[in-house]
Amino acid sequence: MSATLVMSSTQFKSVEGCLRAMLFRFRSRLRTVTSTDYFARGCAVHAGLATHYDGKSVDDSLLAAVNELQARLPNNPDMVQELTPQVLDLLTFYLSDDPKSGATLDKEERVNTIAVENTFDIEVAPDIRIIGIIDHLKYFHRSNSMKGKAIEDHKTSKRGGLTYGSNIEYEPQQLLYAWAAREMGFAPEWFSWNVLVTTKQPYVMRFYEPIYWPRIHTYMLRAINFAKWLQKQPEEPGEILLDVPGNPGQCRSCMFRQLCDFPQLTDVLLQSDFRREEYQGLSQFRKATNGTQGSNDTSSNTP
Questions:
Q1: Per residue in 91-145, pLDDT tens?
Q2: Please, are residues 192 and 155 in contact by the beta-carbon 8 Å criterion?
Q3: Which DSSP symbol is given to 27?
């Protein structure tokens, strides 16, 4: 009997971008130093917002954010010291009476929280489970009479603009969240992105899109079929990494873009001392492969 495959909503989202990058991150468990550190900042902001929407005070929210940051970076006190003022400034603004703050938007929209940090663990096929956390389940009523039950995802972004929320109804993580919420008895009517824009003068943008259930059903069929394919693959990721397709359109922003040029990747992942550790970049892989660089071949059979 095969072991149970547990996949997170983040993993399914990564598949849509680049299957090979998803395997680097979640099967090989590789991380870059920079991505790990700044991911911690977003987690800290999430923790503060979850505490706020759970009805706690501003001080409790700020404390929760600092505790989360320290927990995420236990071996990097310098980075904690650098990121703490940023996190506290962002949360203090969000909870303020500024016209562009999140707290002001909540008052204007008459937001009623139903649940925060709602975890799910759902079996979708034999020996396959999907897990995740929905940031905010809420009921809202805007002044333009738009109202209903919504699943909301908190995000931080260095940029604003309406383009950020223009594809919310196609975003894989949101589709999976809507499905999971309905499985738990909360049938949402709206997607919502609550975006804290971290420019020099921060502000909050909130996007809503109605939920179209046929699109969600189609996506979940694809997601479950992918999970069934992955379940059949070797446990050691190096055995399949170079046989899966890459996505050149994602390479520029991919944290693993340097790794696809090495045909010796299997040996590096399976035998080197830095497997499943944070890597500093291309120099380590040049050293591990004696400076030999191969081609970036993204052709393969798709699952």
A1: 999 999 999 999 999 999 999 999 999 999 999 888 889 999 999 999 999 877 7
A2: no
A3: T
- 208: β partners: 192
In a domain, 293, yes or no: no
Q: Look up the domain containing 246 and give its range.
A: 19-31+241-288
Give the residue from 22, 25, 31 showing the smallest Cα distance to 244: 22
Beta bridge partners of residue 120, listed in sequence order? 132
Nearest to 196 by CA among 187, 206, 209: 206
* Mean pLDDT in residue range 147-173: 77
**Does 79 fall in a domain?**
yes
Amino acid at position 25, single letter: R
Q: Tell me the pTM.
A: 0.76
Specify the length of the chain in residues. 303
What stretches of the chain adopt beta strand conformation (E)? Answer: 5-8, 31-32, 112-125, 128-141, 147-157, 190-197, 203-210, 278-279
Domain count, the chain: 3
Q: What is the pLDDT of residues 143-159, one digit of tens each?
A: 777 899 999 999 888 77
**Distance (Å, rounded) from C-alpha 54 to C-alpha 9?**
23
Same structural domain, 119 and 10:
yes
Q: How far is CA 255 from CA 238, 247, 281, 287, in A?
A: 18, 13, 9, 19
**Residue 296 within any structural domain of the chain:** no
Residues 172, 223 share a domain: yes
The reply to whether 50 and 185 lie within a common domain is no
